[in-house]
Amino acid sequence: MVMLLLPMVFVDPSGGGVSEKENRMLASRPALTDIRKSPTDFTRRFDRWFSDNIGLRESMINLHNHFDGLTTQSHYAEREGLFLLVGQQGHHYFTANGRLTAKFAGKGDLLSDEQLSGLVSRLKEINDFLFKRNIPFIVMFCAEKETVYPEYYPISIIRGPEPVELDRIVEHIKTKAEIDVFSNRQCLLDAKESFLVFDKYYVNRTGITHFNEAGAFFSYQELIKHINKYFPEMLPLPLEDITITYDENEVAAVLLKEPHHRRLDSDFFDNVSLAYSLKPEFTSAFENNDLTLPTALFMRDSNFGIMPPRLRLSRFVPEHFGRTITIHYENMQYFEDYVELYNPDIVIFECAEWQLDVFADYIINTRLLF
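Given the sequence above, the corresponding structure tokens read:
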């Protein structure tokens, strides 16, 4: 009984902190008054808050992973408190405490049927809202390493069937919501024939949980190809305009020739409503030498980029826009304000594959006025 009750005694009553291990915001406790508005939604949010903020959570996760690793032939390795899968030829994989391993095996759902239905409905509403303002809308999902490099996963973990759930979700949203939605999976599958697009080994937390700089470049090219439908003069930078190198740890670095944009100071957002602005990767804005170019508004996660050296998509995308404003999707409750404030010429939502359920909840639960 003590073992069961002790974590409840030390639960974080408010939540909403930052998890360094998982590279995300932990869920906040919903207001008790919300139960009247939607008991189902309140229950789901309460469960997420409790799971994220229960006392001794990290210790229990570490203990679970330790014993789980013993039962899977010691495939797990620990780096700075983060548990990884060690695959074939030494490849490291982020596990998200087992969620991504279950997904790889086809035993875990990225989204529940209710979440997928709600996400489709809300994305359609957002698309209609932007269409009335003549603003194109694109949704981009970024695949995880095991979705791009399944061949190096531990052979004892049986791979799930194709098409993978990410592909099924993209196709479902595209069909039901009738919006421009895609994932970068295929472009990375094509690029990996010549380039390593995810770090092979663990170097740091942000490296193992995202595509590398080379993967960012090919993902950027795919994104611009979609944007080209709305701005025909906008073409992605060719491979000849960059230099891709790898260090002794096979970590990619990309050198862009003659960049034409600069990052704006953080005070650009001083008068903007932000629910989460704790880290530089949550908000960033860029300005091009040519301010006559279109303005882009991104609601995104850390795949877009953080401070150097992990710039990722932010190294290339701002080359094409007069201003590129990027805000984490956890600030979705102010989305309508951002559209009115920045008057963007295009809006792009971006989310990592493994965070699709979190992304869906933020989109679904945002009480927008339109």
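The longest helix spans residues 113-131. Try to locate this feature in the token string yourself.
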